[in-house]
Amino acid sequence: MIRPLEYCVNTQHINVSIDTIDNRIVELLALRKAYLHKAKVLQDDTDNEQHIIKNISSNQVTLAKRFDLPIEFVQAIFQEIDNYFNQDYTTRGYEQQ
């Protein structure tokens, strides 16, 4: 459970909320991967241009500003996500442990 910050009165509340946030981040990354896979399948079926999937993440600056995060930080995260999902994992050293 993510407890609203103003209701966190001890470190256990904070830790449980952070753990829940971390779980949701990983869940959303897996969901994003599934959507990218589906987009690639549909792209292959319809013979669309290669850059369509790249345009999905083109609003990184807007997202960074909306959530008051450094633009470079948000761009670096999306770059790492894109690199991970668009590579041969074993040749890049990202094989699953």
Query: How many helices in DSSP terms?
Result: 5
Succession of helices and strands:
HHHHH
Q: Mind summarizing the main beta sheet? A: none
Q: How much strand content do the residues show?
A: under 5%
Spatial extent as radius of gyration: 17 Å
Low-pLDDT stretches: none
Helix content: 55-70%
Based on secondary structure, the structural category is mainly alpha
Q: Can you count the beta strands? A: 0
What's the number of domains? 2
Can you tell me the overall shape?
A: extended
Average of per-residue pLDDT values = 83
How far the N terminus sits from the C terminus, by CA atoms, comes to 28 Å
Question: Care to give the gist of this entry?
Answer:
The protein is mainly α and 97 residues long. The protein is built from five helices and no strands. The relative contact order is 0.07.
Task: Write out key terms for the chains shown.
0% strand, mainly alpha, extended, 97 residues
Topology of this structure?
Blueprint: H1 11-46, H2 52-55, H3 60-66, H4 71-85, H5 89-92
Helix pairs in contact: 3-4
Describe the fold and architecture:
The protein has 97 residues and is mainly alpha-helical. It has 2 domains: 1-48; 57-97. The protein has helices spanning 11-46, 52-55, 60-66, 71-85, 89-92. Helix 3 (60-66) packs across helix 4. The chain is extended.
